[in-house]
Amino acid sequence: MSAPYIVEAVRTAGGRRKGALAGTHPADLGAVVLDALVARSGIDPAAIEDVLMGCVTQGGEQAFAFGRNCVLASSLPDSVPSVTIDRQCGSSQQALQFAAQAVMSGTQDLVIAAGTESMTRVPMFSNMSVYEKAGIGAGPFAPSIQQRYGVSAFSQFTGAQMIADKHGFTREDMDRFALESHRKAAAAIEAGAFAAEIAAVQTEAGPFAQDEGVRFDASLEKLGSLDPLAEGGTITAGNASQMTDGASGVLVASEAAMKTHGLTPIARIHHFSVTAGDPVVMLEEPLRATRLALEKAGMSLADIDLFEVNEAFASIPMAWLKALGADPDRLNVNGGAIALGHPLGASGTKLMTTLVHALRARGGRYGLQTMCEGGGMANVTIVEAL
C-alpha cells in the first residue's frame, strides 16, 4: 500500500463577501489554485488523474459539475476529470481524504484535492431557496427527518449557541477568543507567514494576495458593540467566522509518482477519519472525532505539534480545547476563520495548506486538522511535515 504524500499546498487569500474577489467567477477562482499547483510542482498537467473539488452551495455559478468547470477554466488539459464533493464545511478536507484513499488503494497516483466557494456570487443557502420560490417540495429536510428530531430545520447558529451554553462560555469569553484570532492573523500577515502558501488572484484592481477580513484594529470594545445573532444569545458576527470568497488545494502523490515526476513531498498524510453524531447540536462532533482519530492513530495530543480547528464559531474550538485539555498555544497559531474567513467548501484544504506550511516554518512534525460540519459530522486529518 502506497503512502499518500502532499507535494504542494496553496490557497488564495480570503476575500470579504462583496469584496476584492466579488468580480471573479467561482470557476476562475478554482482555476487559480489548480494552475498554481501545477506551476509550483512543475508537473505535466496531463499526468493529473483526477481533481476532487469541494463546494457546499452547488447552484448558480457553482452548479453543473462545478469541479469540472474549474478544470476547464484552468490550464489543465480537458483530459483531466473532476468531481464535486459536498460534506458541508469539510468538503475539501474530505476531498483530501478521498485523494489519499485513491493513492493508498493504488488506483491513482497523482490527484488534486481542492475546494472553491464564492459566498458573494453564490450566497449561502441560495440553492435551498429554489424550493421556496418554486413552491414545490419540502426542501432538504424531509417530514420524516423533522418528526424524528423534533425540528423543522437544522441550524448551525442554534447549534453554536447550544454549545456555548453547555460549556458555560460567556459573550466576553468568545469575544476574547475572536480578538486573539485577529491578533494572531495580523501578526502572521505582518511577519509574511502566509507568503509561501498564497497564490495571487488577478482582479480588475490588480493582484489580490492578502486576506481581506483581518481586522488589525480589532478590540474588545468593538466586538462587544455587535448585536447577537439571536435575541438573548451570545453568538455574534464578531465571534463567528466571516463569509468569504476563496479557493485552496493540495497535490497528492504516491511514492511511484514522486519518483516518476521528480517530485519532493512537503508532508505525508499519517491518518484520516470521519465521524458523525447529533445533527441538532451539530457542531460538537470534532471533540469525539479527535479522540477516536488519535486512538486509531495510536497517538496522543502530546504527539501533535499544531492544531487547526475550524473557527466556524468561537464556541467550537473553545469547546474542543476545554474537552480535550489541549494547549491553546498550539491552536490556530496564525489565526482562524473568525479573522481569515470561512469559504465553506474551500476551508478544508485551506486549513491544511496553512497547517503544513506552519509546521514546516516552525520545525514541527505532526499536525491535526478537524472541522465541524453540517448534519453533525466531523473530519480529522493528521499529517507529518517533511
Automatic annotation (TrEMBL):
Q: Does the keyword Translocase apply?
A: no
Q: Which Gene3D superfamilies match?
A: 3.40.47.10
Q: Where is the Thiolase N-terminal domain?
A: 5-255
Q: Where's the Thiolase C-terminal domain?
A: 263-384
Give the annotated active site: C89, H342, C372
**Which of UniProt's keywords are assigned here?**
Acyltransferase, Transferase
Q: Which terms does the record give in the GO molecular function aspect?
A: acetyl-CoA C-acyltransferase activity
Q: Which InterPro entries match?
A: Thiolase, Thiolase-like, Thiolase_C, Thiolase_CS, Thiolase_N
Pfam assignment, any one: Thiolase_C
Similarity-based family: Belongs to the thiolase-like superfamily. Thiolase family.
UniProt-recorded name of the protein: Acetyl-CoA C-acetyltransferase
What organism does the record attribute this protein to? Novosphingobium aureum
